[in-house]
Design goal:
Layout lengths: L14 H5 L18 E3 L8 H8 L5 E3 L4 H20 L9 H18 L3 E9 L2 H7 L1 H18 L5 E6 L2 E6 L4 H16 L10 E9 L7 H17 L5 E3 L1 H11 L4 H20 L3
Parallel strand pairs: 6-7
Antiparallel strand pairs: 1-2, 3-5, 3-6, 4-5
Amino acid sequence: MNRASLPDNGQTSTIAEILSKKDLEVPLLSSIKGSKLKVMIILLDNLSPYERQIVENTPHRVIDLEDDLLKKIVELQEENAHLRSEALIDNLTELYNSRFLHVQLETEMARTRRTGLSCCLLMIDLDNFKMINDTRGHLEGDRFLTHVAQTFSQCVRTVDIVCRYGGDEFVAILPSTRLFVAIRIANRFKKAVSEIPGATGYNVSASIGIAEFTVSSPWDAKEFIQAADSAMYEAKHKGGNQVSTKGHYIIRLNTGFESVSPEEKEAISSIHDSTQRQGESDGI
């Protein structure tokens, strides 16, 4: 079957005009007495299975045969872009969501294995946040979470990625970052939370756990998150409002790193130092 091409003279065509072109071997539309034909069109552009499921579970758009095709294609493309964005963005805070976190974390871990530059993960939980919901209501709690998200976005470097993990938990991916730099960034987060209006009155603070992933780390993405999560709970058990790194994780990392040859270790360290100097020049 020959393809019916879109008009290239700047003029628009309706669905019916294009599907009824005479150069088709078999007309795609034929007159059926007493019937009114409509066409259902869904444009799917490289959607993941998750995004495709979202589209399939939403009401499909039915386009009238007299509608302008090019205009409808543009509208559908815009809707697809919006759906893709919604699948990755948290509706309340407009930060990336936990689904994006898992995808991006795999990317950063692969980058570490390829370049030798470690990356860090911060797990952040708000201490006593429940008090805001219990005393002022969930609407006020949502406003506070939005303020926290905006504050975190201002505390990080351009290369860092902040996500809402769920509830009052946030996660920050710090690419090409050593543990000591991650600790400084975490303390900046902790201080920023204490300065949010209303935080002091409700004794809201931040407990932050840090995990570092290096070229010798045996973790997968799930274990990397669990390491940071475990360190965060350790900070909370110590009274909250502090930064913690899980001790045996650090020992495990350092022990593994000894398997790298001295020459490789020196080369990786020099790359790390260059990256951290760049971070310090950004004010970290």
